[in-house]
Design a protein that fits this description.
Layout lengths: L1 H40 L1 H12 E7 L6 E2 L5 E13 L8 H18 L5 H27 L13 E8 L1 H7 L9 H4 L1 E10 L7 H4 L1 E2 L7 E3 H5 L1 H4 L4 E8 L2 E8 L6 E4 L3 H18 L3 E8 L5 E11 L2 E4 L3 H4 L9 H10 L8 E3 L4 E4 L2 E4 L11 E3 H6 L3 H12 L3 H11 L34 H6 L8 H12 L4 E2 L4 E6 L2 E5 L4 E3 L5 H17 L13 E11 L2 E13 L6 E8 L11 H17 L21 E2 H10 L4 E4 L5 E7 L4 E6 L16 H10 L3 E5 L4 E4 L12 E6 L1
Parallel strand pairs: 2-10, 26-28, 29-31
Antiparallel strand pairs: 1-8, 2-3, 3-4, 3-5, 6-7, 8-9, 10-19, 11-12, 11-24, 12-13, 14-17, 15-16, 18-21, 19-20, 22-23, 23-24, 25-27, 27-28, 30-31
Helix pairs in contact: 3-4, 10-19, 12-14, 12-18, 14-15
């Protein structure tokens, strides 16, 4: 009986085991079938899906845009990666208790580093983001429970935490803050990288250097940035993004080729000097716009080019390329062209006389007037030289009529032969006829001479010559007759090595004979010493040049004036040529008093910085009466300098770290007074200080300093005594 029972149980076990084996066999077969199906039947589709989920191909790697440099290697424009800082509050790794534990110290750290918000405000942004994510998750769950496919707008995945974009150094520091020092899936921290174009010198030479579009991939939009965009932008690379263990990793397939660098001829110090001088005069004269160009005589290198347009009352900024786009009549600066042609052709000599009378000369029904004809004085006769000194239209008109009235084409051809109408390629992008001269022949098919064109053309009307051409012509006079094209691009570089270097193009190897050249140079010097350019004359060095005043053609008549001065210095050994033009100033137009004053300020500034080899010696009998000008600043350093100079001084009000100075005229002694320059949390007062002391004091208070000019501080952008926000930028202007 027991044996039967045992046998029965054994049969049941075998039966069950058989069914189990059979079932597993079916499962095994099903697995094999599915493996075959997935691998061979659906394999291509699954592999493609896998690639899509784990690999993202053909993503562009942006190259670094090339830099733009000044002549001494200082950066005028460079690319800097910046990062927008965000939090994804939907990140699965964020734990509420951990977030609440660290939100206060995190907010405090953020407020200390980025003080545009305080700790309470940062905390509110973070907690509001977290609360928003919980509401959005609850709404998603509710829709799912109700069987609704209504989509929920998710905003908590992209919450901006730090307002400004930050640089890489700041980002590294940010990742050490409480909570943000965890892995990104646990902190929710993520960044959006952008490439921004940075100009270390701000708006300096802004129009010439140019700008790029907001989307850097679109490249340059103006100036050198646009002209050399194809070189600066580089060649993009190629990468894939592969998901490994939950993280996306970039795999570079093809390295990008960074852009070439462009080295310009611009000099930062001269550019700054030119901009300030022109800006101040435009504000003073309430002018519409202005231009100043400084060129190195022998090399043709443009050391400064500033183009300022009025944007609002008393405010000017870089706008149009005025050096090229002032396509208007040049006025009396063109008289030098007529003078050179007439002297070279033997029409006159500098000492020949012309009848001027009361400053009115009638020719074929039109009257040529001198600028001071209203005085009614009868001058009688004036020499050609005197006509240039005093800028007499009557003298120049009669000079040209004497030589070319019967053959005006010869006069125009001589101007063309000088090279003043030669079409040149410039270093900045231009539109239409910008940057070209227009001096028509008598038989011009579309605009032939009138019966009075010749005399009016002789003193700068009925022509179009932009400032850059006038600069080039006067530089030819300064350069012993060799006229060369002004240029801005010195070299194309790669990895610090020069790939291509540029030199000035020779437009005319010899403008005239040496005799004519000498006579013209003597007359241009006389304009400054004994003529309309007297205001330009300097006690430091000789200057030569010519004033210009021209009415501006508009709507079939004339509206306002274009006043200019073009010349070179030192006139006995020229180093620089400069053109200054001011358009539609308010008040009595004067080429000497308006642009001439700007020219003189620029010339003397350059001379003092670059051309003085030895200090100017004071007159012997005045040495003892000279007292040095002492800037405000550090008491310790001031005492050291005054002791070395053996200069008497007195301390008023006891010792202090910082002092301000004044001169006691009764005792001829320098007085040093305590200067309470700053209090905790307030912007320091650095007016009257030198750059070194001002920068030390401001940066010590946590401010970023932008320096403009040289000398002592005359203006600061943040008001002294106002609340100090660390990390803010303050601009200090020195004179």
């Amino acid at each position: 009986m027991a044996e039967k029972s045992e046998s029965k149980m054994k049969n049941v076990a075998v039966s069950r085991y058989g069914w189990l084996v059979l079932l597993l066999s079916f499962v095994f077969i099903a697995v094999i079938v599915n493996i075959f199906k997935i691998k061979y039947v659906e394999g291509a589709a699954w592999r493609e899906l896998g690639r899509k989920e784990t690999v993202k191909k053909d993503r562009e790697v942006r190259p670094n845009r090339g830099n733009i440099y000044a002549d001494d290697g200082r950066l005028l424009a460079t690319s800097e990666p910046l990062y927008g800082v965000y939090m994804d509050f939907m990140s699965e790794g964020i734990k509420e208790d951990t977030l609440m534990k660290y939100v206060t110290p995190l907010s405090q750290a953020l407020a200390k580093k980025f003080p545009d918000r305080n700790a309470t405000q940062y905390k509110k942004v973070i907690l509001d983001g977290w609360a928003l994510s919980r509401r959005e998750l609850a709404e998603i769950a509710k829709n799912k429970a109700n069987g609704s496919d209504k989509k929920v707008r998710i905003r908590s995945r992209y919450v901006r935490i730090v307002r400004p974009d930050i640089n890489y150094v700041e980002l590294k520091e940010l990742r050490t803050f409480p909570f943000f020092d965890q892995r990104s899936n646990r902190s929710g921290l993520f960044t959006e990288e952008k490439t921004m174009r940075k100009k270390p010198f701000g708006r300096l030479a802004g129009r010439t250097v140019g700008s790029i579009y907001k989307d850097i991939d679109q490249g340059g939009s103006s100036g050198i940035e646009l002209k050399y965009d194809s070189l600066l932008k580089g060649v993009p690379g190629l990468k894939t993004r592969q998901r490994i263990q939950g993280k996306w990793i970039d795999v570079i397939l093809e390295e990008p080729t960074d852009g070439y660098d462009v080295k310009t001829t611009l000099n930062v110090d001269i550019q700054d000097l030119a901009e300030k001088a022109l800006y101040d005069k435009l504000v003073e004269t309430k002018a519409e716009s202005g231009v100043a160009i400084i060129m190195e005589v022998e090399t043709g290198e443009i050391k400064a080019m500033t183009n300022l347009d009025r944007v609002s009352e008393g405010v000017y900024a870089e706008g149009k390329p005025n050096a090229f786009s002032y396509m208007s009549e040049p006025g009396s600066t063109f008289k030098t062209v007529s003078l050179m042609v007439a002297l070279e052709d033997g029409v006159v000599t500098p000492n020949d006389s012309v009848y001027v009378g009361n400053g009115l000369f009638q020719y074929k029904g039109r009257v040529v007037r001198d600028h001071d004809w209203r005085k009614g004085q009868n001058r009688g006769y004036a020499t050609i030289a005197r006509g240039m000194y005093s800028s007499l239209n009557t003298v120049i008109a009669q000079m040209i009529l004497k030589g070319y009235e019967n053959d005006p084409k010869k006069y125009v051809q001589r101007i063309h032969d000088l090279g003043l109408t030669k079409k040149l390629e410039w270093d900045v992008p231009l539109e239409g006829r910008e940057g070209t001269s227009y001096i028509r022949f008598p038989d011009d098919k579309y605009n032939p001479f009138s019966k009075t064109t010749l005399p009016w053309m002789s003193f700068g009307y009925e022509t179009q010559v932009p400032p850059i051409y006038m600069l080039m012509f006067y530089n030819g006079i300064a350069n012993n007759g060799k006229m060369i094209k002004p240029f801005l691009t010195k070299a194309i570089m790669k990895d610090g090595k020069i790939e291509e270097e540029f030199e000035a193009e020779v437009v005319n190897p010899m403008l005239s004979s040496e005799k004519t050249l000498h006579e013209v140079r003597e007359i241009l010097r006389g304009v400054v010493t004994d003529g309309t350019g007297k205001a330009v004359n300097s006690e430091l060095f000789p200057i030569a040049g010519k004033t210009g005043t021209a009415m501006i053609a508009a709507r079939g008549g004339y509206e306002g004036y274009f006043v200019s001065f073009c010349g070179y210095f030192p006139s006995d050994n020229p180093k620089y040529t400069c053109f200054v033009g001011i358009r539609r100033p308010v008040g009595s137009p004067s080429g000497g008093l308006m642009p001439g004053a700007v020219f003189k300020r620029i010339a003397e500034g350059i001379y003092m910085r670059n051309l003085v080899a030895t200090p100017i010696k004071p007159v012997a009998d005045t040495i003892n009466s000279l007292i040095p000008v002492v800037k405000n600043g550090s008491l310790k350093n001031t005492e050291i300098v005054l002791d070395e100079l053996d200069q008497d001084f007195t301390l008023a009000g006891g010792k202090a770290d910082w002092i301000k100075t004044r001169l006691d005229t009764l005792s001829n002694a320098i007085v040093l007074e305590a200067n309470n320059v700053s209090s905790e949390g307030l912007v320091p007062n650095v007016i009257g200080m030198g750059a070194r002391d001002a920068i030390f004091l401001l940066e010590n208070q946590g401010l970023k300093v932008r320096l403009v000019g040289a000398g002592k501080v005359r203006k600061q952008s943040l008001t002294a005594g106002s609340r100090l926000v660390k990390g803010s930028t303050i601009t200090i202007e020195l004179n």
